[in-house]
Amino acid sequence: MRAMRRAHYLAAPACAALLFAGTARADNPASGNVDPPNERRAGFVVGLALGGGVAGSSGYPNDQNYIGVPGYYAASGFMAGYGGGLFIMGALTDYLSFGFWLGTATFANGSWQSKGEGGGLRLELFPLYGLGGVFRDLGAFTQVGIAATTLTYKDKAGISYNGVGSFIGAGVFYEIRLAKALGGHFAIGPSLEYDAIFSEPMERHGALLGARFLWYGGK
After folding, report:
1. Which residues pair with 75 in a beta bridge?
2. Residues 50, 210: contact at Cβ < 8 Å?
3. pLDDT by residue for the chain (219 residues), tens digit each?
4. What is the distance between the alpha carbons of residues 56 and 78, in angstroms, rounded to a whole number?
């Protein structure tokens, strides 16, 4: 029993030493075992996304007396429109960027018009970066935050629905690296995204196909 206890007491410091030794090798430049510098993305990121698509909105007037009452329910059906967003992030690695976004989109059909705007947090990933080649620039993103939306009936003044609630979006994109400028480089590419706004009286779902334009500030 004493031998087992002694072995246990000796093993614990040894394991800790191995753990911290591995950390030291990874973080100590003198060891020659440091993370390689970013190759494709680094530094401050400013981006703009623009596109067109379709959306649908439905719900009740923003009044507790009307929410949930079938006679006050409205649904727009499919609407066509356009939207865009601005995002400011930091490229933490070649495969991970994180920051903030602001966006707006407007859709309409023969009878209805819907507007929405919001802002929040944005995360971009390049999950296939390790495969190399064209996969290094194939990415996906998600963004969450707070948004407001309206739905207005065109044919009769005074019929309008609105709500403020949660926003969630996700999409995929591809980046094409452009010329170096301003201490970094520009990039452009197609994007496809899905967005949704959820509030107590109403909700809106939409999809946009468009393009994104970015500047990466790191070398």
Report:
1. 58
2. yes
3. 333 344 444 344 434 333 333 333 344 444 454 556 778 898 999 999 999 999 999 999 988 888 999 989 999 999 999 999 999 999 999 999 999 999 999 999 999 999 999 999 999 999 999 999 999 999 999 999 999 999 999 887 667 889 999 999 999 999 999 988 888 899 999 999 999 999 999 999 999 999 999 999 987
4. 5
Dig out the tokens for 41 from the structure: 């993305």
Distance CA 28, CA 32 (A): 7
Question: Rounded to an integer, what distance in angstroms lies between the CA atom of residue 88 and that of residue 215?
Answer: 10
Please classify residue 146 by burial: count the beta carbons closer than 10 Å to its beta carbon, then call 0-12 exposed, 13-18 middle and 19+ buried: middle
Beta carbons of 116 and 197 less than 8 angstroms apart: yes
Rounded to whole angstroms, the Cα distance separating 168 from 144 reads 5
- Name residues whose C-beta falls within 8 Å of residue 18's C-beta, 6 or more positions apart in sequence: none
Residue 213 contacts residue 191 (beta carbons within 8 Å):
no
What's the per-residue H, E or C state across 136-161? HHEEEEEEEEEEEEEEEECCCCCCEE
Look up the pTM and report it.
0.79
Q: How far is Cα of residue 144 from the mean position of the Cα atoms in its chain?
A: 7
* End-to-end C-alpha distance for the chain, whole angstroms: 60
CB 117 within 8 A of CB 85: no
Cα distance between residue 214 and residue 44, in whole Å: 10
